[in-house]
Structures are given as C-alpha cells and as structure tokens.
Design brief:
The protein has seven helices and eight strands, in the order H-H-E-H-E-H-E-H-E-H-E-H-E-E-E. The longest helix is centred in the first third of the chain and has 14 residues. The strands form two sheets. Strands 1-5-4-2-3 form a five-stranded parallel sheet. Strands 6-7-8 form a three-stranded mixed sheet.
Length: 177
C-alpha cells in the first residue's frame, strides 16, 4: 500500500469543518481532562468532584476534595450529597473503564449539569497530581508519557507555588469499580 492510498483511505469519510466544530465543541461540553479539573479545583471553580468508584478503589486513593458516591448509589443518594443543579464532574478508574460515563448519565437523568473527567483517577496519578490515601497525601512522579513535567504541573500549590507535603509511593493502584 502506498502512502497516497493510506491517506485517501483515512480521509475517505471525513466530517465537514462545520460538522467537526459541532462535534468537538459538543465533546468539550461533556468532558474535561484531569489537567483542566486540577486547574479548576485550584481556581476554586464552583463544582463538586465525584469519585464514582467502589469502596475498595476509594480506599486506594482519590482526588483531594472529591466526594465519594459510588455509581450504584447515585440514584438514591445524589440529592442528599449534592444540591440539585450544582455542576458535577465525575470520575472513575480510567480510560479503560466506563463507570464515569455511566455515572455522568445517571447525574444527567437527575437534572445535574455534569462532565466526565476523562482519564479518571489513573491519569490523575499518572500526571503526578497529589492524591489522598488513608496515610495522608501521596504523589507519584509524573509519567513521562503524559508529558506534564515540562508544562510545570508538579502538584505545587497554585497560590504559593510550594510543593505539597506528600509521600511519593510506587505501589500498584488497580481498578475495582
């Protein structure tokens, strides 16, 4: 196969620029990546971050400030945990898990403005952001494949620039959704 054939096949079915704009603008209405969520938390944007994983996964670690509301409990407990109408961002394990998508759907059916944090807890940790554990705040070095260290995303306090007091760990964190 020549390169020209590969290019022709790749773009044989391509959206018009107008359709592409609508599609990608729409995705941004439904999704936020972990870096954007991290920045929004640091800026004090008004939303509630919901960890939708089960108890075992929550105990392994979670985003600081997140509220634990497992997906199976959203329909029964959401209104008692988050006032109706409050913007919500949900996350689960990571890109290989659709628990956050299911949870976002559940919140949307209950009338909440909701976004899914793509990448989930896995990419929060991989980007080197601090996370809460039973032993306190922990942090891993950024995964070189996420390329966040050059961007200055080191988990430092956005106000003071000081690094958080954390324990760097290298234990396995697994999906138990």
């Amino acid at each position: 196969m020549t390169q020209d054939t590969a290019i022709a096949t790749l773009f044989e079915h391509v959206a018009s620029p107008v359709d592409a704009i609508a599609h990608f603008r729409g995705r941004l209405g439904f999704e936020a990546d972990v870096s954007d969520v991290h920045a929004a938390l640091a800026d004090g944007e008004p939303f509630v971050l919901i960890d939708t994983r089960n108890d075992a996964a929550w105990a392994q670690g979670h985003v600081p400030g997140a509220v634990h509301l497992p997906r199976r409990d959203i329909g029964l407990r959401a209104a008692s945990v988050v006032p109706i109408g409050t913007p919500v961002v949900v996350y689960c394990w990571g890109p290989g898990c659709n628990g956050a998508t299911r949870s976002a759907l559940e919140f949307a059916t209950l009338g909440y403005p909701v976004k899914e944090m793509i990448g989930g807890f896995e990419y929060w940790v991989r980007e080197g952001f601090a996370f809460d554990t039973a032993d306190g705040l922990a942090q891993r070095l950024p995964d070189g494949l996420t390329n966040v260290a050059p961007a200055g995303l080191t988990g430092a306090d956005a106000t003071t620039g000081a690094a958080p007091s954390v324990t760097t760990i290298d234990t396995g964190i697994t999906c138990a959704c």
